[in-house]
Design a protein that fits this description.
This protein is of the alpha/beta class. The protein is built from 23 helices and 21 strands. The chain folds into 4 domains: 219 residues, Rossmann fold, CATH 3.40.50.1100; 97 residues, Rossmann fold; 99 residues, no CATH class; 121 residues, Alpha-isopropylmalate synthase LeuA, regulatory domain (Double Stranded RNA Binding Domain). It is 40% helix and 20% strand. A 6-stranded mixed beta sheet has the order 4-5-13-10-11-12, with helices on both faces. A hairpin with a 4-residue loop joins β20 and β21. α9 packs across α10, α10 crosses α12 and α13 packs across α14. The model has no long low-confidence stretch (mean pLDDT 90).
Length: 608
C-alpha cells in the first residue's frame, strides 16, 4: 500500500520522485508530501511510540522513506525541552520552554531534515548532492554526505560565518563562496543539479518531513499535550512548516489535545513573511538584499513561504519582527537566565517573547515553546562584537586582588549591547564631571591620578572630533589602569608627525622618551604604521628586541568616523616573553602606536 504521494503544493499536480523532488515541473511551485494516514497507522506500534524515548529515528514510519537500509543516523533529535524558569520569571511567564536544537550532532536543527534527505538521495541513486546554504545546512549535509560516501557541493554567500564554514570544510565538502545573496546561491545550485544530475538538497519537501519530528517531540515532552504557542525563527520557512505539520499530524492521530498558535519571527532586514502576514496574504514579496546579523534566516526568497504563511494563518498565529539589537540582548538573556547559548538566529524566538510580553499579548499561564535553532558556537563573532574583551593582567596576585577589590568587573557587567552606544560626552568634561560619570556609568571608583590620565585620553578622543560613548569610556579607563600597572615604563610617545602620499613611502617623525632619555626619531616605510614602528625600533637601540607577530584592527562602530581597536602581539626574542596589547582611538595610527607603546612597556616590565 502506498503510504504517500508527492504533489505540487500550489497546483496539485502529482509527481513521480524520478521527475522532481524539489519544484513542480508544471507550474514551478514547491512540492509537498501527502500521506495516507490509515496506511501509516496500520504499521504503527502505538504502545512503542508512546513509551520509547524521543529521537528522530523513532518516527521512521512518518517519513517518506521506503527502504530503511538507506537511513544513516548520527543520533539526531531527542533534544531537550528545557523549562526556562528563571527566564520565564523575569518575563512574568510560568510555562516558558526552550527546545534546544543546538544539541543535534552538527549543532543545528537541520540534522533532522538531513537524515531524511540523504536517505532519499541514496534511495534515488544519487551520485552526488549539491545545495545552497547560509551555513547551517551546509555543515549538516556535508557531515552526512561524507559518511555515506556522497560528494557534496556547497554554495554559500560570501561572508558566511567562519564557524559554519569550518564544519563544512572539515567534512570534506567542495565549498564555493558566491559574491551574492542566498537566493543567488539557490538559483545556481538548481542549475548545477540539472546540468550534472546531482541530487539537489535544501529546503524542499523531504527536508520538511525530517523537521516535523520537533513537533512530535514537543508534544511528548509536554506529557502528550500541545503548548499554546510555538515561537520559531523563519528563513525559508521549511522548519516552522515542518514543526507545524508534525503538530497537526499528532493532533489528527489523537496523540495531542490541540493545535498551538505558530509564531514566525524575522528581522526588519529580511522580513518577507512578516510583510505578507501584515497584508493578510500567503503571497510574499522577495527581499533582494537581506541585511541582518541573524545570518541563518537571511533568505530573501523563502522557498516555503507560501506554506508557512498558510500554517500561521490556519493556527491563528502570527508573524512578527524583532531588531538585531533585540536579538543580541535576547541572546545574552537566554544564556544568563536560561542556560542556553544559541546562535543569533536561534535567539529570535526569545526576543519575540520578550516583545510580546511587553505588548501584553501573552498570559502568565500560557505554555510557550521557543525553538532555538542552532548552537551559539556556530556564529561566535556576533556576541563577541557586542561584549567587551576580558581584561588582561600580569600573573601577579596583587593585580588580581586589585581587580576584585576595586570591582573592575563592574565595568564589563554594565556594558550591555544597548549601553555600549550611549554617548556620555559630547563636549569636553572637567575632572569633577568625569569622575562622576565614571562612578555612575561604570560603577567603579578610581583615584585622582587615574582620573587625570583618563581625562587626558578623553580630550585626545574629542580633539579628533569624536564624541565619547560608554564603550569608548570603558576602553579608555581600562587602558589607563593597564598603564598604571607598569611602574617604570621604557617607552613614552610624546608626539608624532607622519606624511604619506599615493606614490611615495610614508615618513614618520616621532618625539619619544626612552629609558628617561628624550629622542627625536625618523624613519620611512611602506605605510604610516610601518614607518612609525620602524622609527621606534631604531630608537630602542637594542634595549629590547621586540618582534611584532600579530596585528589586527577592528572597527568598533560604524562609518568612517568610527572608533577603532588595535590589537598587537609582541614577542621578546631573547627571553621568549609574549604579550598581547590593545588600544583604541578614532585614529588608526594613534591606536596602533599606543598599542605598540603598551606592548613594549609590558615586555619591559617582565624583564624588570
Amino acid at each position: 500500500m502506498q503510504r504517500y504521494t508527492l504533489k505540487c503544493y500550489d497546483c496539485g499536480t502529482e509527481h513521480d520522485e524520478q521527475q522532481s523532488v524539489t519544484t513542480c515541473f508544471k507550474c514551478g511551485g514547491q512540492l509537498e508530501v501527502y500521506y495516507d494516514y490509515e496506511a501509516i497507522t496500520d504499521r504503527l506500534n502505538v504502545q512503542a511510540l508512546k513509551t520509547a524515548p524521543v529521537s528522530a529515528m523513532k518516527y521512521l514510519p512518518f517519513y517518506p522513506i521506503d527502504n530503511y537500509k538507506n537511513v544513516y543516523s548520527l543520533q539526531e533529535g531527542g533534544t531537550p525541552l528545557i523549562h526556562a524558569k528563571k527566564l520565564g520569571e523575569s518575563l512574568g511567564l510560568k510555562q516558558l520552554f526552550i527546545k534546544n536544537e543546538g544539541l543535534n550532532p552538527t549543532g543545528v536543527f537541520k540534522d533532522r531534515g538531513t537524515l531524511v534527505e540523504i536517505a532519499k538521495a541514496r534511495e534515488l541513486g544519487a551520485t552526488a548532492i549539491c545545495l545552497a546554504s547560509t551555513g547551517n545546512m551546509a555543515a549538516s549535509c556535508a557531515a552526512y554526505a561524507q559518511i555515506v560516501g556522497l560528494p557534496c557541493y556547497v554554495l554559500v554567500p560570501q561572508g558566511t560565518p567562519v564557524g559554519k564554514l569550518a564544519q563544512t570544510l572539515i567534512s570534506g565538502a567542495r565549498v564555493i563562496q558566491i559574491r551574492g545573496t542566498y537566493s543567488d546561491c539557490a538559483r545556481l545550485a538548481q542549475e548545477m543539479a540539472k546540468r550534472f544530475g546531482y541530487y539537489l538538497a535544501g529546503d524542499y519537501a523531504f527536508r520538511a518531513e525530517g523537521q516535523k519530528s520537533q513537533g512530535y517531540e514537543i508534544v511528548e515532552q509536554l506529557f502528550w499535550k500541545s503548548p499554546d504557542y510555538v515561537v520559531c525563527p523563519v528563513g525559508c520557512g521549511t522548519n516552522l512548516h515542518g514543526i507545524g505539520k508534525g503538530l497537526r499530524e499528532y493532533l489528527d492521530l489523537g496523540f495531542s489535545d490541540k493545535m498551538p498558535r505558530l509564531v514566525g519571527v524575522q528581522t526588519p532586514g529580511c522580513n518577507p513573511i512578516v510583510d505578507a502576514y501584515k497584508r493578510g496574504t500567503n503571497q510574499f514579496k522577495s527581499v533582494a538584499k537581506p541585511n541582518t546579523l541573524a545570518s541563518a534566516i537571511a533568505a530573501g526568497t523563502p522557498l516555503d513561504g507560501h506554506k508557512v504563511l498558510d500554517d500561521i494563518f490556519a493556527s491563528e498565529g502570527f508573524a512578527m519582527e524583532v531588531t538585531d539589537d533585540q536579538t543580541i540582548a535576547a541572546q545574552l538573556n537566554m544564556m544568563r537566565l536560561g542556560g542556553v547559548f544559541g546562535e543569533p538566529s536561534g535567539a529570535l524566538g526569545v526576543a519575540a517573547v520578550e516583545q510580546l510580553v511587553s505588548e501584553g499579548k501573552l498570559k502568565a499561564d500560557d505554555t510557550i515553546v521557543v525553538i532555538v535553532t542552532g548552537n551559539g558556537l556556530k556564529d561566535p563573532k556576533t556576541p563577541l562584537d557586542a561584549l567587551p574583551e576580558p581584561p588582561s593582567i600580569e600573573p601577579d596576585f596583587g593585580e588580581l586582588e586589585s581587580f576584585i577589590e576595586n570591582k573592575l568587573y563592574a565595568i564589563h557587567e554594565q556594558l550591555t549591547p544597548k549601553a555600549k552606544q550611549k554617548v556620555v560626552f559630547k563636549t569636553l568634561p572637567d575632572q569633577e564631571q568625569l569622575h562622576k560619570v565614571i562612578t555612575k556609568e561604570l560603577g567603579i571608583e578610581v583615584n585622582e591620578h587615574a582620573v587625570t590620565e583618563i581625562l587626558a585620553e578623553v580630550h585626545s578622543f574629542m580633539d579628533k572630533g569624536k564624541t565619547v560613548s560608554k564603550s569608548d569610556l570603558v576602553m579608555i579607563v581600562e587602558e589607563v589602569l593597564d598603564k598604571q600597572a607598569v611602574v617604570d615604563p621604557l617607552l613614552t610617545i610624546v608626539d608624532f608627525e607622519i606624511n604619506t602620499s599615493l606614490h611615495h613611502q610614508a615618513t614618520a617623525k616621532i618625539k619619544v622618551t626612552i629609558g628617561g632619555e628624550d629622542k627625536q626619531l625618523m624613519h620611512s616605510g611602506v605605510g604610516p604604521v610601518d614607518a612609525a614602528i620602524s622609527a621606534l625600533r631604531d630608537g630602542l637601540d637594542g634595549k629590547l628586541m621586540a618582534k611584532l607577530t600579530d596585528y589586527t584592527v577592528n572597527i568598533l562602530t560604524g562609518d568612517i568616523d568610527a572608533t577603532v581597536e588595535v590589537k598587537m602581539t609582541l614577542v621578546d626574542g631573547k627571553r621568549n616573553n609574549k604579550v598581547v596589547s590593545r588600544a583604541t582611538s578614532p585614529d588608526v595610527i594613534v591606536a596602533s602606536l599606543k598599542a605598540y607603546e603598551k606592548g613594549i612597556n609590558l615586555l619591559w616590565a617582565k624583564i624588570k
